[in-house]
Design a protein that fits this description.
Helix 3 runs antiparallel to helix 4 and helix 4 packs antiparallel against helix 5. It is built from 7 helices and no strands. Helices cover 71% and strands 0% of the residues.
Length: 136
Amino acid sequence: MRDHPDDARAWMLLAELLDPSLEPGAQAAARRRAASLARDDVATLIRVTDSYNETGNLEEGLPTARRALELDPRSPAALTSLAFLSFRSDGCSKAKRLQYRVRDLLDGSTTADFREAMEERLRTFERKCNANRPPR
């Protein structure tokens, strides 16, 4: 870090390597630093978002995911990252709406595996959101 204090990728790598049980707060601080340095780098912002998602820091991940989507509104990766964070933070209707946009953006260059993974995520959102809907 001493050699590259302004490199968002280095901070992201540090965040991924840190053990939060050994250094409480250090992982989150490294993630925040990466996001602040990569304000215009969609790929890094998505990695930061996915890292927040993996560690359950949903509220911290949402602004980063929104920024990535703001920079590239047609990015399936940015859309699906925000959809998953929204889904996990009780935003069923928003998550489904975003995931439908992902599906609509997929084209002929999309691999069958990725397409199936996105369809499966949409089915999961539908199933779980519908199961949590109060009876009428």
